[in-house]
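Known limitations

Structure tokens in this collection are predictions and should be treated as such. Users comparing against experimental data should check residue numbering before alignment. To illustrate the layout, the record for HTH arsR-type domain-containing protein is reproduced below. The input appears on top and the generated tokens appear beneath it.
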Amino acid sequence: MVFASKADGGLGHPAQRTWSALRAAGARESSVQELCDVVGFTQRTVLKHLEGLVGHGLAVQGAGGGWTATGPGRGLPDPRPGDPALAGSVQ
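Generated tokens:
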């Protein structure tokens, strides 16, 4: 599983939060800073998540430099709808 713990070869659950924020934004590109504001991680951490997500085919960087979710689950409801850090979309 992509979001299994790093010890189990996955990206880890924090990366899932970043991907969930990308999914919540839909087709609109999100900047790294916008993602940081939503998930509460540093830019360095979010960039590491994005690198891993790209490697798994779950995110792409657009021509404008922003990021969007790709792959399975894009546009689906967040798997943790009660998490206030992920409520709503990236603005």
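For this record: Residues 1-59 form one domain. The beta strands are 59-61, 67-69. Please report discrepancies through the issue tracker.
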